[in-house]
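Repro case for the chain-ordering regression, as requested:
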Amino acid sequence: MTERWFLFILLLVVVMATQAWFYVRVLQKAGQSGWWTATIYLSWLLGLVFIVVGGASLMMLVSGALLMAVVPVAAIWLFAFVRWPLISTTEPTPTWKRLVATRDSSTDRWFEMAAAELESTNVDRATWARALALAEGGEPAARAKYIQFRVVDLAERERRKQAEKVEDGNIVARIASEARSKAFGLTALSLVLLFSLWSLSPWKLSDSAPNPASSGNFFDQFDSGKTPDSGGVASGDVSAQRLERARTWDETMEETKVEAAHPGFKRLVKSPKFEAWFQAQNEEVKKLADSPHAADAISLLDLYKAGQP
Amino acid sequence: MWLTHILGQVMAWGVVASLLLYPMWRIFRRAGLNPRLSLLLYIPYMGLFIVSGILALTDWPVVDRQNAGSDHQ
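-- result from build under test --
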């Protein structure tokens, strides 16, 4: 794997991981499980498998591409329209009509409490006063109104208690994750930015170009037999780097051009005769070997061949 | 050649961004943020990353309003 490919994949992984984290955060903010993010990445993985495994089949290729494109888009559409539990956690205030129609342990308990209060005369005075006022003095009607007001009041208290509990949990969780999340997000963004800048920067380009100061030359990459201590013109590290670079697409193209101009040049440059001739040349000529361009290598080989009897 | 290639990719991105614009607009509105931020989707390659970053890293006004409402109860 070349340095450029490695960087590209590294950048891709960082971007994808950050993107996944963004999705998780958004889902959690809305009260959904962050695991839904996995559907997008699984669809990409599956799509990739379809494309790689069934590359020869058009149907598999199209299915893979569709899977990779449709699922993320569909997921975003779905998220836009589903209920967001955390945003709409507060239940509506319970109405008397609904409470009368509901039969569950809580509602029954509130009715029992209201009835017990009436029987024990230990009533909630404010509620009793309201009931009396609305019943216009009639006690049986006031008792009925009391039960109504009291049950609604108890239900409302319970609702608030539950809402506070949920809210407390949310706030604690939110505060705890906020600082951590922001720090992680900013770090990831900075990394993405740095990698982008670095991979596009002129320093990076000059770094990947051959170093004229080094003792290696264009042809070292084909001389796999040389060792760092063999007295060759390149060190082991430089040779390894050159070999790595030689596998890039660009260099393969350059090699093809040199091969077209000088068939069998790889064998030629390994020969002791060429090595001896090369070592005897001045710096200007040696610099031709440091160039990554085929034209320079061809010139060098032209020079060599012109000097041969 | 490379210009055609890039133009093709940018146009394909435009199609994807258009498909995502309405749901993103709705998501921003539901979160209480300015829905016009979803137009950032049209930035080639990085649009979705930026938009989801905004949604993930900003405080949602709708949550703040909700918290304020529960405090006043």
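Ordering looks correct now. The interface with chain B takes residues 15, 18-19, 21-23, 25-26, 29-30, 69, 73, 76-77, 79-81, 84, 86-87, 89-90, 160, 163-164, 167, 171, 181-182, 185, 189 of chain A (CB under 8 Å).
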